[in-house]
Amino acid sequence: MSKVLGYTNNGGEDWFVSSNYGNIEIQGISDPEGGHTLDAPTSIPSPFARMDLVRKAFENIVSDPSLSFSQQGNKILVSKEDERLVSQCFDLAEILFFYNNYKDSIEIIEWEKSTQLNKLKSSAEPGHKMLGEALELYLQQDEATFNFNRMKNIYIIKYNHQVIGGTSPLTLFFPTANDISGFGLKSNKGKTFFKDVVPLYERDDDFQKYIYLLFDIDEKKGSDGPEINLLASNMKELVAYLDKNLKFLKVINKNALYDDLNRLNKSDLNNNYIDLNSNNASHTVEVLGVPLKTIDPEVVINSIKKSDFVIFSSKTTNEKKPLVLAQGANNSLMYVNSIWDSNTRVPYFNPETNLDLRKLPGHDIIYPYLTVSDFLEPGIIRLVYPINNEKYFNGNLVLKNPESTKGYLLPLKPLFFEYFDVEELVNGGMGKPVISIQETSIASAVRVLLKIPINNGRAYITFERTYHNDKNVDLATNKGIINEHQFGVTLFPFIKYEDSTTPFYKIQLIDRDVTGDFIDAEYNLKFYSNTSKTALNVDNECLRSKKQKGEVTKITSKSFSVNSTFDYIQVDNKFSKGIIIPKWYPFSNAGDSFTFAVDFGTTNSHIEFSKNNSAPRPFEITEAEIQAVPLFSNKTDHNFSGSAAIDIRTAIIKEFIPDTIGKNTPYSFPHRTAISQSKTHAPSNGGIVLNEFNIPFIFEKTIDNNNNFFTNLKWNSKEPNNESRVTAFIEQILFMIRNKVIISGGNLETTKIIWTYPTSMSPARKSHFKSTWDKLFKKYINTHDEPVDVSESVAPYYYFLGNSMLEGLGNGVSVLMDIGGGTSDVVVYESNIPKLLSSYKFAGNTIFGDGYKDFGDIQNNQLVNRYKEDYTDLLNEHNKNLSSIANDIYSRQKSSDYNALLFSLSGNYEIKQKELFDYNKKLSSDQDLKIIFLYFYSAKIYHMAQLMKVNQVELPMNIIFSGNGSKIISIITSDKNLISDLTKNIFSKVYGITSYPSSGLKINLEKEFPKEVTCKGALMYQKLGKQNINVADLKRTLTCVEDIGIFKLTNGQIDDTVQDKVVAQVKDFNKLFIELNNSLNFEDYFDISQASFAKFKEIADLHLKAFLKAGIAFNNRMDGVSTEADVPISETLFFYPIVETIQQLINEIAVLRS
Q1: Residue 861 pLDDT more than 80?
Q2: What is the dihedral of CA 542, 547, 548, 554, to 10 degrees?
Q3: By the 8 A CB rule, do 433 and 450 touch?
Q4: Where are the domains of the chain?
Q5: Which positions ≥6 away from 2 have C-beta within 8 Å?
Q6: Backbone phi, then psi, for 58, in 5-degree steps?
Q7: Is the peptide bond before 670 cis (omega within 30 degrees of 0)?
Q8: pTM
Q9: Residue whose C-alpha is closest to residue 601's, from 715, 495, 491, 512
């Protein structure tokens, strides 16, 4: 039997009448792919077939309530292709609705029907003309079916220059038949356009409202016709879809959106959206005369600004505060226009550094956002010591082992602090950022969690990164690395300045990375404040020492000067970066008034202070006042976690300052007057304190192979760059004083400084010192006041007077003799009023130095040689460290420095059996050398007596001794009465009387702290409101030619006659000294050997004139004073021959062994 091929079910023989296929016939055609194919049909004979396919897809899809693929048994109701075409149609609509998000990649090309057809038909190209005629035919033929009669334009849509679809008079849009699923365009909800099938009800709420508004706008048909909606009346299939979509919203409980769509106001279309323009900016895209809209970019941005993911920061003033996004975040917060999808892929690292150019994850919307790598560094710096968490923020470190001796820098980037102040991170609290650093048990990894507040502080996004013990960073997978570095940072002072006070900071960095690649580390520090996005200016950066492979120097030492208040530091060494946050001392001005007295001595310097007029006490830095605070904890073990990186600690003391200074600490005042500078990177001229220079508190206590020490700063004016070292010494003193005042709650505006100077200092040199003190006082203390200078000759007197230690309470004649290392000052008082004073360079170093040698000559100094072997053995046995220091100081050739070390040992913090090392005691027991000290003392008393006699001053009731040099008296004898008898004998012989007056003579001596007396007296002098005396008016100089009427001697007058007179005076003294043995037998009273006395008599008068000439030449070289003929001499010539006589006596007598 024959088979009729068709779907009308009509039958008949031969030719018979049939009918066109309708919907019923078409639906009866079976799909061999079961509706699952996504390939488009290829046999529809029309250039506009694609439009009809989309229309048909809309017609089919409404048969399913969920508007998706559907079948009943084997019968396909809605195919996959239907589903896809409808979805892609809405994709095009949504892309153009959010046009601003994709505008850089989207083109909208206008094809105006009548104009373009006429161009084609009138073309000289036959093919174009034929195309135009054919196209016109189709448009006319299908005008009723496709609404071409109402269509003016078609708009072709391109993405990255490829056609992806166009506008349709049947279904608003139609997609290209080409495969465009791989473009990767994302919707607001994170779906991929043209790949993911998304029904309308799953799309953006604003987009759905827009579509419904388009189909709800009425327009007049002609001037008298009724208002109709051109889209709704011509796109029945799409309208049916919208009806089904609305109903399904109710089914899936999107009630809020359902209600909104039912309450739409027709005016919202023009009020809420703007016209969508084609590439021809003046032409609005329209379909059937209805203009299409796009969401106003500002509306999108304003919507994002209300996102729950907006960073909660009081610092950012940017109108577009960034969102904070993290991969895998699981929350129910509003993202862009919808709830966050936890499947949204957020990159751990975004290479676009300009946040304003970033596109939000899951969207093509350009809006700033922050991700993990914006705030967390790729590497974390592990330290070989725990951070001092009392002074620095340790990032809420959680150790795997509580006994761990490691610490970590904060792996934060400076960008973090553009949104949060350090106080917010350190102090925490609701709506504040929180960081934690956690050691894990897995392969020694470290996990860092950084919680960033969002949603007005009601929620957090947690950035997390795990750092591993290997060398491979992989930011794409959020893998960081751990780099262990050996370095230290110390801040000085540890103060957060208030705005009204000029800040001065010194920061020391010690790089002890000496292994592997890290030996090439180049450390740099950047300083930031809460109020600055860029690093602050570093006023000076200095390299103090440089580590070298295989050399003794094992560290690189850098220092930085920063004259701005900063809140955190970024460490960068080329391998890693990290943040240091100090927990500053607050600046507290409690209004306390401080006065400080500074004695800048030749050998030792001292500082005393008084708070609110309290009793003076030595300068100290207590545990509560630490000024230089290192990063490492004071609980850090000696060996720094077995790394042997002890230089991180010792370099602070060597090149910076110790944490504490004072009684019962290794470092205290009085302290050696010395300055330290680098051996390899010393400035040839100038230099900055605590950068190139520092006061070496380790001097005589610790060996230092990286630095040179300079002493005799006070007088060594000819030494290259000595003035810069002097300035540095004074500046560090004032810097430390300033810090103490601030930390102790004092008021810099009421702080006073007193500095002392020797009377023998030339006016020019004293003026230079005054200029230095004045300039530095204004820099560090205040600008409205000046420091007060007080003569060293005057200050000590008021200590003894104030403590009621003077016979007759100072009524009568009293003499003060201050014996320092380089100079001695004498002041004569009558009833507590200074009458005359004198100063000269005949002091402690006369005995313990090298005489008139320009350079040290320690090998030939017999006083040193007499005791060196004994002390070498003692130190080798009891303290190897001090033994090395002694050898180091000996190698520098200065006998005064070596002797000063020997004197310091009995007070050294490290020495336990102090009596074994008591140099004073050893010298006092030395029968041979003791005559040197007796001769020295007698010369000073003789000079004093002569000076008082020629100035017609009565005999003294009190003689007061101060200064470290006065310890020489205790070498002679511990019996003050014996010293008094000796002194009265000398005065009686000079004054030509047979016996001293019955009022007697009291010797006043501070045995325990003779050096401190000058500063204590200066403070009492200031407290009593004494006016500084005019030194020039009171100063007297013994010329030794008073007998011929010369009471003031100039350089030009020092001829042979004067020199012979000076020599004669010295000989008269030598004779007097020898005669003293008759009344006070030296052996019986002072335990002086006869052999040494005999040696003295043998050589005391030899070469005196030659020694005098040598003294004149030496002092002119060293003092820097004018040698002009008419300039008065600054000190007596009497002692010049005696200085070298003492050196000769030492060398002759020291070889004796009585």
Answers
A1: yes
A2: 150
A3: yes
A4: 44-280, 303-353+361-485, 855-924
A5: none
A6: -60, -40
A7: yes
A8: 0.80
A9: 715
